[in-house]
Structure to design on (331 residues):
């Protein structure tokens, strides 16, 4: 048996050290450094950990919904469970998840766990998936995509039409760079709101939260004492005019980078700005020795519907299919 420890704020540094240094499938998205950017009243905290002899064996970042369901923390793209590499053995994983399942059964009406995708894990999630199904959880998938960056110029992996569109953009005086000032961020956010409004949605983050995230996530140093740029903002300009911008998450532990937001100025007609921006981002990632460029999901309503046009566009940029896996169970 493991000791079950409900989350306490004074744990934050310990949990973050566990995720960053001791886990097989933890990312900065499960750290309190990231999750704590949310106002305390936004989610009802339900996070807990399982501990053995003073060592965290597994960490379950989560919150409870009004329906009394435990869900992988809704403040993150995916939540867990996050396993200690020393406990990532078949018998241990089964033991840990069985005890967690008993806890869920006793306290909640249902549970939904969204696993860290293999693309961002140091170890395969197969052990977790086997154990979840063995315990009677229902598996659900969303179709995602990624472009491998290990074969020379990423443009060569794009299809013929994509290469044609990009070559057209090269005839213009395009500048690709990181955001440099408040005006860059404000312009990006204005077009992000316009883009989301077309789908009757709003950005998940406010502009102030993006500033906060950049400060939080880019504060750590690597082994050579250089800042780790986990959240990145890139854009293209033509003769000083903003054309398109994007926000990316860099998962340096697994050499993968993920496109989170894109915000083009659709009134720009000289060339297709989204393709130009993405190819530049792919090339930058390849130069920096990233191995995979993640595009995120192309499905809606929990994976029920595939946006075929969106997925086809990603395929034009050399993308391959992958899945994001969620496990659910009702009690």
């Amino acid at each position: 048996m493991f000791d079950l420890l409900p989350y306490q704020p004074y744990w934050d540094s310990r949990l973050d050290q566990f995720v960053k240094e001791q886990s097989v499938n933890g990312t900065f998205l499960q750290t309190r450094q990231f999750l704590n950017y949310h106002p305390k009243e936004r989610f009802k905290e339900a996070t807990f950990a399982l501990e053995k002899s003073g060592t965290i064996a597994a960490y379950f970042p989560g919150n409870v919904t009004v329906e009394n369901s435990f869900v992988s923390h809704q403040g993150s793209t995916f939540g867990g469970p996050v396993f200690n590499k020393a406990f990532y053995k078949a018998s241990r994983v089964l033991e840990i998840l069985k005890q967690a399942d008993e806890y869920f059964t006793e306290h909640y009406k249902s549970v939904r766990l969204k696993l860290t995708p293999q693309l961002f894990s140091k170890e395969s999630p197969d052990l977790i998936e086997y154990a979840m199904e063995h315990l009677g959880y229902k598996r659900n998938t969303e179709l995602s995509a990624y472009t491998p960056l290990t074969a020379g110029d990423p443009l060569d992996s794009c299809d013929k039409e994509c290469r044609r569109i990009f070559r057209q953009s090269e005839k213009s005086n395009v500048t690709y760079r990181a955001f440099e000032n408040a005006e860059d961020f404000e312009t990006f956010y204005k077009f992000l709101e316009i883009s989301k409004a077309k789908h009757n949605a709003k950005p998940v983050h406010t502009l102030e939260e993006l500033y906060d995230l950049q400060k939080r996530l880019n504060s750590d140093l690597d082994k050579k004492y250089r800042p780790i740029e986990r959240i990145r903002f890139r854009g293209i300009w033509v003769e000083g005019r903003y054309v398109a911008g994007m926000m990316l998450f860099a998962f340096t532990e697994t050499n993968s980078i993920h496109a989170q937001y894109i915000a083009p100025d659709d009134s720009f007609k000289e060339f297709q700005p989204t393709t130009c921006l993405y190819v530049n981002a792919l090339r930058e990632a390849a130069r920096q020795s990233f191995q995979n460029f993640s595009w995120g999901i192309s499905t809606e309503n929990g994976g029920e519907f595939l946006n075929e046009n969106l997925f086809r566009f990603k395929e034009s940029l050399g993308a391959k299919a992958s899945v994001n896996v969620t496990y659910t169970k009702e009690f």
Notes: Residues 3-136 form a domain with the Aminopeptidase fold (CATH 3.40.630.30). Residues 80 and 115 are 5 Å apart (CA to CA).
